[in-house]
Amino acid sequence: MPYADNAGVSLHYELDAPEDGRADRETVVLVEGLGYGRWMWRWQRERLLAEGYRVVLPDNRGSGDSDAPSGPYTIEQMAGDLDAVLADAGVERAHVVGASMGGMIAQRYALDYDRAESLALFCTSPGGDEAVPTPPETQRRMFEVPDDADDREAIRYKMAPAMTDEFRVDNDDLISDIVDWRLESDAPDHAREAQGAAVAAFDASDRLGEVELPALVAHGTADRVIPIENADLLHRVLPDSRLALFEDGSHLFFIERADEVNDRLAAFLADV
């Protein structure tokens, strides 16, 4: 398993490539959200490999097999982690895809480093005074678990606002698998809180006009975690952005409606 290092923090990542092994394949790096492990991208990973891309999947600091130092963390730190991973993997240019907190890391990365070829920003926010915050009831649900909940019940409880009620009811077996994956690789409580502090402090709103990279801004219109208004803000401020809205889509719209999202992402990447 490859590891990169950023100022003493060990960062695990995976590097997957199409079976032909060609070195000239373009690279896509997938950056996950708050608390989540690499499992989050399994639907996009398979499609991107099938499309002929090399795929880098880092574990954010605090998640998976990366170190989980005491916090708080910052988005700037995690953008530095991402650059350390890409440097270690020998990647000079990459399409950067980030969801939620991962989208914030992608924004910061585009501002502070020079390896990004394009950005795809899923269910995320630019931060700042105009950003619409996570509703209080969602924050409570994500961080205040009932005392009598066991580990599996706690994950289901915290995850509920990120999905549509219909998806949870109709896909109980998949939800059980997701709970297993989260128990195995998600951030422990102290690291999840440290990542949460990074999200709360993030604000790139006054600098995103400097980002001239092609950008895809994708969002579910029924997102209960990061409200849809934030997609409009990103689209407005990024000079070269495309807006893709998924009607009635949840925060995890890229899991619930993976085929639609993958088609839109593949078309965007092919066009840039």
Any overview of this molecule?
It is a single chain. The chain has 272 residues and is α/β, with parallel strands linked by helices. It has eleven helices and eight strands. The protein has helices at 42-50, 75-88, 101-112, 136-143, 151-159, 165-170, 172-185, 189-201, 229-237, 253-256, 258-271; strands spanning 3-6, 9-16, 27-31, 54-58, 94-99, 116-122, 215-220, 241-246. An eight-stranded mixed sheet has the order 1-2-4-3-5-6-7-8, with helices on both faces. A hairpin with a 2-residue loop joins strand 1 and strand 2 (9-16). Helix 1 (42-50) packs across helix 11 (258-271), helix 2 crosses helix 3 (101-112) and helix 5 crosses helix 7 (172-185). The longest helix has 14 residues, at 75-88. It starts with a strand and ends with a helix. The model has no long low-confidence stretch (mean pLDDT 95).
**Number of beta strands:** 8
Could you give the order of strands across the largest sheet? 1-2-4-3-5-6-7-8
Please state the overall shape, judged from the principal axes of the Cα atoms.
Answer: globular
Q: How far apart, in Å, are the first and last alpha carbons?
A: 31 Å
The total count of helices amounts to: 11
Oligomer kind: single chain
